[in-house]
Structure formats: C-alpha cells, structure tokens
Amino acid sequence: IAEVAGQRATYSVNAVDSTTVAFPANVAAGNLLVVFGAVWKSGGNTGVTVTDTRSTTYTVRWYQNSANTNFSLFIAFGIAPSAGACTATIDPSGVSNSLDGVIDEFSGVADPPEDVNGGSTEGSSTTPADSLTTLTADALLLGMMAHVTAGSPTLTPGAGYTQIGEQESEVENPYNAVFRIVTTAQAYTVDWTAGASVAWEAATEAM
User: What is the pLDDT of residues 39-48, one digit of tens each?
Assistant: First the structure.
C-alpha cells in the first residue's frame, strides 16, 4: 500500500449546496480514492453523497456531532473503476453549507477496500482521538478530526501519522486528516494534539 504522490487536493467553500474538487493528475484504475470532509450547516444535515467523473462507487461514513448537530464530518472511499481525469462532487443533504476537506489516492489496496470501520468519538479537550483494531496484517489507517471551537488553535497529528490536509482557521471548518500504513493486525489509536481545548469529533477507517 502506498500514497500516490501529488494527488492531494483541498477544498474550502461557504454558503454552497455542493462543491467539486479535482485530483491534480489522472487517477489509476483499481486505486483507492478517499474524500474527507467537515460540514457545517445551520440546522444540520442528514448525510452527504459523494460521486466522481470516473463513476466510482463511494462508501460514505457520516458522523454528526451530538453536542452540536450543525456540525458533521465524513470519510468517503471507493475503488476507481477506470483511469483518467477525476473530479469528485461533495453534495450534503441540505443547502447553504460550509464545506472543508481534502482528497487523496492510494495504490495497493484490496477491492472491496474496507478492513474495519472505526466509527467516531467526540469530546472536548486538547487530545482528539479515535481507536480501531485492524483485521489484516497490512492496512492503511485513515483518520479525520474536526471541531467547532473559536480561536483557531493548531492541530498536530500524533506520532507515526502523516497529515494529508488541514484547515485551522475558525472562519472555516477546522479539521485535520491523516494516514498511516501499518503491518500488524492490532489495536491503533489515531490521535491529534490541539493547541487549546476544542469540542471535537474524530473518525477512523482501516483499508
């Protein structure tokens, strides 16, 4: 398993029904495509649909924060059915959304890709984290945290995790998305350190 170099792309938009984001270069057939997102809408959303111009079938793991239901995050993933230029569309259930996130591509992942869904954890602290236990020896860990706290504190991934993208400004949806490639089937904690206490949601997936 490996991250495809140069395929990260971020998006950050306000007051939109949906948005699009393009992979910087052509994607390869059989590779894993991942879309991370933080969503804010007054009154909240019930979910999000993710599609792309390669007709990839995405599985979406959607988590709405229980303390502040205006705020949600998601991790969507699918295997590209063909090679070529690829633009993803992120379309939450509601209108007038604030959307922030990042996309990426990975090679060497099985089809179907999901090893285990780690779910999500929420809290209020300087140490956002979520844990999962992988089922296979060689796995790709994906994690995302987001928060809705003013002050724009720094967001730093834990040791061993590589940052894919982040947004720290309180004007947008602050988030941090990471990955890690592991070789042992065991329990893992995907963690971050925030520069000040935040009301956070953190989610994980293993591929």
Answer: 999 999 999 9
